[in-house]
Amino acid sequence: MPEILKAPLVLEFPFTRSLGPVQSAFLSGLRERVVLGVKTGDGRTLVPPVEYDPVTAEEIRDLVEVGATGTVTTWAWNHEPRRGQPLGTPFAWVLVRLDGADTALLHALDVPGPDDVRTGMRVRVRWAEERTGAITDIACFEPYDGEEGHQPAAHSGEFEDMVTGIVAEARLDYVYSPGRAQTDYIRALSEQRTVGERCPSCRKVYVPPRGACPTCGVATAEHVEVGPRGTVTTFCIVNIKAKNLDIEVPYVYAHIALDGADLALHGRIGGIPYDQVRMGLRVEAVWSEGGRYPDHYRPTGEPDADYDVYKELL
Amino acid sequence: MSGDATPREIAVVAFAQTDHRRTTDELSEVEMLMPVLHGVLEQTGLKTADIGFTCSGSSDYLAGRAFSFTLALDGVGAWPPISESHVEMDGAWALYEAWVKLLTGDADTALVYSYGKSSPGSVRDVLTRQLDPYYVAPLWPDAVALAALQAQALIDAGDTDEPALAAVAARSRTDASANSHAQVRGSVPQGDYVVRPLRTGDCPPVGDGAAAVILAAGDRARELCERPAWIRGIDHRIEAHGLGVRELTDSPSTRLAAEKAGVFERPVDTAELHAPFTAQEVVLRKALRLGDDVRVNPSGGALAANPVMAAGLIRVGEAAARIHRGESDRALAHATSGPCLQQNLVAVLEGDPR
Q1: Model pTM?
Q2: Alpha-helix residue ranges (DSSP H) falling in A54-134
Q3: Which residues of A touch B149 (CB under 8 A)?
Q4: Is residue A113 exposed (0-12), middle (13-18) or buried (19+ Cβ within 10 Å)?
Q5: Chain A CB within 8 Å of residue B98 CB
Q6: Is residue B274 a contact partner of residue B204, using CB atoms and an 8 Å limit?
């Protein structure tokens, strides 16, 4: 079997998220080195605070200030920090119950090694030098000698210039592989050929092939070379220019049934004014220099195909 | 429920899974999936057109491609049009949806499948994207780190220790020797710490795989399977997303789901638990009050093969298959999702008396 294609694929999404009143107060507070919790109906203080009681689902807004010191409730030693994690040197993940709180906050603890951390140890917040109103305003926790003594104090939750949203950056790295059928398709394209696969059951030729007949639900494997000519089965006129696209608008995007294929694929139509493109127009692929897929399809000059020939492929 | 007071009897009548492997580059998702779809159809003699309802579970985040479940439908043969649904969850939850559909009387048979290709990305990092995006996800705590926090909490509570966790790992992989589909089998070194206190042996293998089951109601089930695995109860529950709000050494959601599913009404002889990390088996055994006489994860469980999004459905399938083979009369199947056993599904399966 020829080697399967693979390529790096990076997905990044900077989600802009708005904050509700409680999250806004909490993150604004972190920016000002104040840690806020929220009181539930049964008098517990949740840190980090949420807008709805996790037990009763009632809306809760009653903010209190808790300590920037606390107690480790459990931990895990992370000897190989990964991208995006709070510290670049080995650290302990910790759940910390801040003084005055009844629940624990997840963060990192900066200590030299696993022997320097234990459940029950006292810790305090190490603030980030530059704070923007995000959970990362807590750079990490560090060991602290003092006893627990902080009493939660009522807090308005109001700060100057409240943080009302965060940008949640996400990045995931993949090595994408299209699988056997699509690898074959892409390899053929690099030789300026278009191959489909024939279903062993219904005998239809699918292009691009995906290794399965979507009608019969069975594997396909028989290669069939299709094209290079085909028929426009339907089309639309694009009037809006996409970002980073250097094709002049308006242009025509069409479904093209390549000769020998039982499924239309799509592509841009060129070499003809946009308002002269029509159903039944005979076209052929145009490859740009070094192109890995047809740049567009242009008229062949043949007479138009009869509607009856392609009506099943619409 | 077709107007009658007694709910319809619904059973798992067929189960198939892939050989789970670290990578399956040569296969697209649908190419990986098709053999198991054909497997369950062949076992029952059903054709695609005979299936009343189709439901699947998967996640686009694993392979990093959008709407991948729509392409997977090519393997089902969705023409003429079929009644179909998808959950962005483990296939066990797709099975739950199919069970409800059959209960309503809208269909007599259902095909449930799920798949996950973890090999294109880093599943440890991918799973961080399911966490609270405000307070937790920006810290990128990976799946092993969160499981390690839970394991340490159990150790601190005196519920387990590292040798006991190693024993769970060893028992699972030894049992997996008899499971030709498993990815990790036999004697496997416990290895170094990944995130202390969890070692490589305490963690599930990362791999690609798929599974499918067929459900059928009443007499249809008896026609399709010699000894149907009747679903006597099934329920799923979720806990607060805040890790620091939850009691990590316990799983009240599992216990409640089990209670609602009827687990505690009579003893079970087999339990297929979806515990990707050794310490989670300790939590689940306690929550489900499983005694030493219950055969836990004879398949090897998720420590032997953990295709994300399919591993929970496989637990239901493995439990059902033991009933089909006459190795079990009353089995429990459990599936989980989310960090530290946040969401839990429990099903009780029974075979007819022999």
Answers
A1: 0.95
A2: none
A3: 74-76, 93, 95, 106
A4: exposed
A5: no
A6: no
